[in-house]
Amino acid sequence: MVYTSASPTVKGGFGPNLHFKWDSMTASEIRNRKSRIEPIKTPTIAGGLFAIDKQWFQHLGTYDTQMEIWGGENVELSFREWMCGGSMEIHPCSHVGHIFRSAMPYTFGPGGNYHNTVGRNIRRTVEVWMDEYKGYYYETNPFAKDIPYGDISDRVALRERLHCKSFRWYLQNVYPEFKAPPVEDFTYGQLKLGDRCLDHAGLHSLQQPVFIPCLRWTLNTIGAQGWALTSAGLIKHQQLCLGYDYSAERLQLGGCSGQEPQQFEHLSTGHLVHRQLKKCVVSTLQDGSFYPSLAECNKDDTSQQWAFIIPT
Question: Label partner for 56 (CA 20 to 30 A): which of 117, 197, 226, 227?
């Protein structure tokens, strides 16, 4: 076995589905570090990678014993740690051994349904800790509303007993990079052009989304084909926005600035128009893949008519 070091400039985060993901540190965080071995404040952490003082763990309420198997418990504990008086750090010099099994030696509850098990755990997290922001989760994950999550009264009582801060405080002070818009300010779904949907899963160094066949809307799908269309005209995937890069002369994803190169309008005709250039977003075949590009608008061209599929 060989030890593989992790990047010293990443921290834990989460996406719209509340699944853990690694984020790059912000430029200011990197700039303010005194050395590469200095601990990194992290909004969340992966489930198998944390150490905690036993007495503090018991004070915080240990694990939510009504969660099942695994999935979501690390994000729930991360919220609880920060909101209830603690903090979380990544120590670059710590080494953790993790051996991935070739197959899982257990099933995910009755029927072995992974999505329902993880969905239950995440819903418990959402209902206890996310306050008014739970509307954002259910808007982007509508199928989750039908997943039973059990009794949370003891976890709500725990939060009250610990005098924990609000989720708004958490977003403002711990994870300001996560920009959750007011629910009334965006629509969330799949962007479909013809028989294909815009997908970010194939992103490479050029940050170009691609068109692939539309996927069924599940916990995994929203991580690949979920896009938010805001009232300001932004097309967002998590913390990235689609925009026109004038130097590269193409549409690509980048940090959300909200400026004109990132502003679009979805017309009643179905056309998706770049507001500044007055051109329509189309699909272009390049090197065997379909990419979004801009072309002169043609109101009679059905290949320019986008459907914004909102899951129910």
Answer: 117
